Amino acid sequence: MNGILRWLGIGALVLLLAGCIKLDQTLTLNKDGSGTLDIRYGMAEQTIAQLEAMERMSQQDAADSDAGAEEGSPFDFDEAEVRAKFEQDKPEGVELVSVASEVVDGWKYMKMRLSFDDLEALKRTDFFEDSDLSISRDDNGNYVLTQKTGADEAGIGDAPGGDDAEDPMAAAMMEQMAAMFAGLRIATSVVAPSEILESNATSVEGNKATWVFDIDEDPTVLSKLNGMDLKMVFSGDGVDLPIVQP
């Protein structure tokens, strides 16, 4: 899937699709560093049909010119294809537990569950390839998990925000971008193996921290994605996680 589903990695495709993507991910960590990753991504059926038509045209143009066809959408919605592609490139220590599709209110969703032996193995998948996911320990022996949003890689690093947010021209640009990205929603959760002591998450329930980026609810979400690091500190009591470098 070409890294398009890296944790919060939106990718250039989303820019072209005007934000017609919904992505939910939950990373569950066990006390020994193993865990699971649950992913659910969706796209409007109308958009999928448009992409498929564009891909057919691209393949036809490539055939007519004897050139290689460009790679199609990295968002696959065929269960067999998703499983086949994953099995072809999966790294050691990661298993695809399940994959299923569903249609809800005109949107098609794919649901996947992966299990992993450790986070280093998970980082070798397309989902976290080249990511800056890391786990370290602070002076109190607690664990610190951090992850960059990947906004710069997604091509939205120039979204207006910060000191420019009060500038009328920057505000107008932000409003236009928000309209272009209408429907974009990304939610990522981490279930820690112990008590969460600190985080910059949108919400924390028990040992679960969730970050939500919903442009329909918050038009400034693009600027928040720009350079933001997700951070969570959880207790080291009874936990033995390997250190993971960025």
How would you portray this structure in words?
The protein is of the alpha+beta class and 246 residues long. The protein has two domains: 36-128, no CATH class; 132-240, no CATH class. The protein has six helices and eleven strands. The strands form two sheets. A seven-stranded mixed beta sheet has the order 3-4-2-1-7-10-9.
Instruction: Describe the main β-sheet briefly.
Output: 7 strands, mixed
Report the sheet-strand fraction: 25-35%
Radius of gyration, taken over Cα atoms and rounded to an integer in Å: 19 Å
Q: What's the total count of β strands?
A: 11
> How far apart are the first and last residues' alpha carbons, in Å?
21 Å
Secondary structure: helix percent: 10-25%
- Tally the helices: 6
In the sheet with the most strands, the strands line up as 3-4-2-1-7-10-9
The structural domain count equals 2
Shape: globular
- Low-pLDDT regions: 1-19, 151-165
Residue-averaged pLDDT, rounded? Answer: 78
Order of helices and strands: HEEHHEEHEEHEEEEHE
What key attributes describe this structure?
4-stranded antiparallel β-sheet; alpha+beta; 246 residues
What's the topology here?
Elements: H1 12-16, E1 22-29, E2 35-44, H2 45-65, H3 79-89, E3 94-104, E4 107-116, H4 119-123, E5 134-137, E6 143-148, H5 168-180, E7 185-191, E8 196-199, E9 203-205, E10 208-214, H6 221-225, E11 229-234
Parallel strand pairs: 1-7
Antiparallel strand pairs: 1-2, 2-4, 3-4, 5-6, 6-11, 7-10, 8-11, 9-10
How would you sum up this structure in a few lines?
With 246 residues, this protein is α+β, with helices and mostly antiparallel strands.
